[in-house]
Hints:
about 650 residues, about 30% helix, Glutamine Phosphoribosylpyrophosphate, subunit 1, domain 1, disordered N terminus, ten-stranded mixed β-sheet, Rossmann fold
Amino acid sequence: xxxxxxxxxxxxxxxxxxxxxxxxxxxxxxxxxxxxxxxxxxxxxxxxxxxxxxxxxxxxxxxxxxxxxxxxxxxxxxxxxxxxxxxxxxxxxxxxxxxxxxxxxxxxxxxxxxxxxxxxxxxxxxxxxxxxxxxxxxxxxxxxxxxxxxxxxxxxxxxxxxxxxxxxxxxxxxxxxxxxxxxxxxxxxxxxxxxxxxxxxxxxxxxxxxxxxxxxxxxxxxxxxxxxxxxxxxxxxxxxxxxxxxxxxxxxxxxxxxxxxxxxxxxxxxxxxxxxxxxxxxxxxxxxxxxxxxxxxxxxxxxxxxxxxxxxxxxxxxxxxxxxxxxxxxxxxxxxxxxxxxxxxxxxxxxxxxxxxxxxxxxxxxxxxxxxxxxxxxxxxxxxxxxxxxxxxxxxxxxxxxxxxxxxxxxxxxxxxxxxxxxxxxxxxxxxxxxxxxxxxxxxxxxxxxxxxxxxxxxxxxxxxxxxxxxxxxxxxxxxxxxxxxxxxxxxxxxxxxxxxxxxxxxxxxxxxxxxxxxxxxxxxxxxxxxxxxxxxxxxxxxxxxxxxxxxxxxxxxxxxxxxxxxxxxxxxxxxxxxxxxxxxxxxxxxxxxxxxxxxxxxxxxxxxxxxxxxxxxxxxxxxxxxxxxxxxxxxxxxxxxxx
Length: 644
């Protein structure tokens, strides 16, 4: 045996002996219990084949047990327990039946794990069943003993193993040992996942199909999702960065997961909603601090009677659900499969400042943009496509200052700016001062996808658009009489004469898709009367537009020079990543910083939990939101509340 491995084995043995000492001393005079039902020496009727039966700990699932007995050739079952006695034999042999014998050994001390009679019967077992009870006893009594080795060898030899409750919870590569003589609950585990109460143990069973897996039982019934998050987080501490993320596998009381030797597992359920749950540990890596769990997006997949799970990868065919959860300050919330938020600019918008028809028209425009973007997301499309789809609708709506309906420069032309950014890759594209592309957001996307650059401007951007085959329009396409009258008023007063209800008319969108990828897009006509090729914040990556997976996606609208000076969009994300601020606090603080140097406006932001944030400084903002499980909602006025 290699020296390192030998050292680990010795360390495990010493640790187990120290843990077991008090319990062994208390039980040294109590012999193990032994019960037999049926005949032990009869031939096994059928072939024996491998498999794992993972039972959630409720009432015994008869069909699942018959599957297990069949895998054991309907022969001889040995039950290992540290809590329960002969009642298991009564149930297996007399109530379920169809097997030759059931033999039960109830352990009361670690020393019994070397008893020759027990070891001999274990080696001859056609199937081994590990009963429920106190799993810390299993760790103390069996880890590093011949019982441990025989169970491993039994499975490796292609014989079936079953376990219920604690008998399931101990089978993963890592396990919650409950070593403090209690059973940690979800709130406690989430409050301090790396704390001493979360006793994660290892180097016990070594089952290939559960490598990289942490299991739990009584799952839904005892609200154990949060604690399994904590188990997986702590189990991955020190795990190699290039190793696959571990998964959590929880089984409801009314469910049993039968796993074939090839790793394919199916549910036997005694209730319609009896499931197993797969927790993707990739969202629970790199937890290093003693503080409440903060995990912005963790994927959870449900395994139902019509599903197939593949272990140890955790991939699920035909899942009954795919959900995402976020842990915030030690509390779990379900987050939407996808989410989208948009804005249509900001202004001094008070109730009554818009006619009913105008207000309805703005809300209808926002609604149409939300539905266009959500149609992409609902089909599993990427966030990048969704934000472009939403912005495209707003660019075609003359109510908004982007595309058709853009404001005029001092020279009486329309010069359009746009940007888009992919949070997954940090790729970005932007254009400024374009004059003939119907949808500037498509040109920004082309810059990102089809050029080595990030920002193209004016004539060069127009030429690139033609080369890329994007839809070209006569500049008159962008003209509206309302915007022209605003220019004429500006020329008379030589100052901005925008309708105050649309002072800052930029449009934008942020989204997160079903894969957890973030994206942001922004488009604008700029400001009335702009001169000298002025470019605002919208096409400046990090100022008016930014997206980074795991942090946030941002699109801003307002007095662009101030957003540029504050690097507003990137600042929001950096506050989240570097200062640990919530997305809402980061957005509000950033808008406050813009206001402190004289800027007005607002921004929308989306985090990995799919909850959009809308921040503005004493202005109204045309805005909307939609998720996979909610209809579109729009708002205009500063104090307008969402209908949660």
